[in-house]
TrEMBL record:
PANTHER family: NADH-SPECIFIC METHYLGLYOXAL REDUCTASE-RELATED, OXIDOREDUCTASE YDHF. This is Aldo/keto reductase. InterPro entries: AKR_Detox_Biosynth, NAD(P)_OxRdtase_dom_sf, NADP_OxRdtase_dom. It holds the Pfam family Aldo_ket_red. The lineage of its organism: Bacteria, Bacillati, Actinomycetota, Actinomycetes, Micrococcales. It comes from the Bacteria. Residues 4-294 form the NADP-dependent oxidoreductase domain.
Amino acid sequence: MSFPLIFGCMALGGPWDRSEITSTQFDAAHTAVRAAHRAGFELFDHADIYAVGKSEAVFGRILAEDPELRRGIRLQTKCGIRLPGNTGPEGSPVHYRLDRDTIRASLEGSLQRLGVDSVERLILHRPDPLTTLGEAAQALDDLRSEGLINSVGLSNMTLRHVAAFQQVLSTPLTAVQIQMSLAHRDFVETQVLGNQSEGTEYNFPEGLLTHCVADEIEVQAWGAMANGIYSGRGAPEGDPTAEATSGVVTRLAERMNVSREAVVVGWLLRHPYAIRPVVGTTNPERIRACTQAPEAAAHMTHSDWYELWTAARGHALP
Ligand SMILES: NC(=O)c1ccc[n+]([C@@H]2O[C@H](COP(=O)([O-])OP(=O)(O)OC[C@H]3O[C@@H](n4cnc5c(N)ncnc54)[C@H](OP(=O)(O)O)[C@@H]3O)[C@@H](O)[C@H]2O)c1
């Protein structure tokens, strides 16, 4: 596989409001993107809603000012979430829209902000129960036939969505993006707690991962750094489980001679389903630290992996 990590661009471009991008915000974003490019990241993850479009806008400006960064990179973006005062009207509820016009308008806006003619992949950010899959699929197929996207991804969706979209899409469905991390472990908890009452605390679309693997659909994990709570940010106040997990992460990182970030992200890479972690740090040091994740995964024993899992869940497996 090429470089397995994906660079999450959600935190580029400043606050989620309509303020101008300041030169400090631009410089910070430029430094982060350059660090990611140098570290080997190839795929950059965007969405129309990130920083009210400013994440894409700042990225587009960076590519324009520093064309060297275009070399070897691929972009994916997302559409479909409508937030008030962002992609949705002020005063509207948070809602999802995957109708033909919304998908097209969102992608056109993203391409314009990013300053590119096409993206590798357009991801539907969340399901919209009010739009038929057929309508959304037709919109995506049209975009592909116009050369604006190469493929489609689905985010925060179930196996039923994936299978149904595969039926109606002509465009290849190449990725699924969903929350998975040492802090958000439902994907493994549901695998082992099937007949345990504790299992009701967890929720992950049954069969999704095995289906993706069988159909060669890439599985992307968002929130892969667990927001830093096990790798130096500090555990939330009064959370002994997170503190204990940080201790295990630190001990394993020292033994493997890798960063703590690498252990947290490597825990996902150690899973046999070729999960691709989407990491959201903009800190150049932490960006470089994440790149040791494949090394951490390679050195992580079966027992290490379970020790991390057990520490994060706070009590032993049944
Ligand atoms: N599909 C979806 O619905 C969805 C939802 C959310 C996110 N995403 C994607 O996934 C990417 C990653 O998600 P995420 O950013 O929510 O989660 P993440 O990668 O788990 O966490 C990144 C955040 O944790 C902070 N952090 C990490 N280590 C730290 C440390 N040692 N000390 C202090 N802060 C630390 C980072 O701050 P620094 O920048 O200071 O390091 C950053 O704010 C996003 O950029 C986006 O592309 C997708």
